[in-house]
Amino acid sequence: MLTDHLLVDLGDDGALRLTFNRPEVLNAFSGELSVALAERLEAAAGDDDVRVVVLTGTGVAFSAGADISGEDAHERFDVRALDAANRIIRAVVGCPKPVVAAVNGVAAGVGCSTALAADLVVAAESASFLLAFARIGLMPDGGTSATVAAAIGRARAMRMALLAEPLTAREAYDAGLISHVAPDAELASLVDKVVARLTRGAPLAQAATKKAVNAATLDQLEGALERERTGQTILLRTDDAAEGMRAFNEQRRPDFKGS
Questions:
Q1: Is 55's pLDDT higher than 90?
Q2: CA–CA gap between residue 115 and residue 104 (Å, rounded)
Q3: Looking at residue 1, what is its pLDDT?
Q4: What residue numbers bound the domain in which 246 lies?
Q5: Domain-located, residue 259
Q6: DSSP, res 100
Q7: Cα→Cα distances 227→69, 91, 141, 162, 243, Å
Q8: Residue 12 belongs to a domain with what CATH number?
Q9: Quick one: average pLDDT of 166-188?
Q10: Is residue 256 domain-resident?
């Protein structure tokens, strides 16, 4: 799918840069963006010209998550969005090429899920990581019930998920959630250095390493994706989810009733 929502650039070094390009809504994932991203990631897996994939965002954000703007958000947001998110996560984790998330700003919701599915996460100091789902009456998805707990443990994962507390890039690095952090002005330089090392590496060894580490640490990912899909599908039909999305768009605190 060709779309202006995703910028695609394959450099001579074999680095495929996929840039979320909806800065006016903090790169929130539209249906078009989600499908285009999944398609590009899946194609990269079998493209010998691609040595590494870099995910990043235009402007001040990596991605604010799913696009739930508008009065009818609770009616538009359905299982198709969950399936698109799961397709992206499977493509990132399953890609035999290293995937680097260059997190230039906030990574929230499915934007956070996508970043944390990457093999290396390089973040600017001003970036933050937020599982915002609880704020709108939903549960984490995009595999984060597995990826976050695998990285930082059950207690910290519960804190992020249940309280929807953001972690700064420095806190995320100290907790072991991300691999690199840099001053904002040095983010691009650090990403370039990481990418250069990867593109000079041995592709077969990288693929085998990624497969082995993911098998050892993310063996629950597929089950997590299915459990999240089931739970989220039920939650999307609740009054609380509708209220959460209305409150988000009206910029107020939601009044959840447990129904």
A1: yes
A2: 11
A3: 67
A4: 6-185+203-250
A5: no
A6: E
A7: 26, 18, 9, 17, 23
A8: 3.90.226.10
A9: 98
A10: no
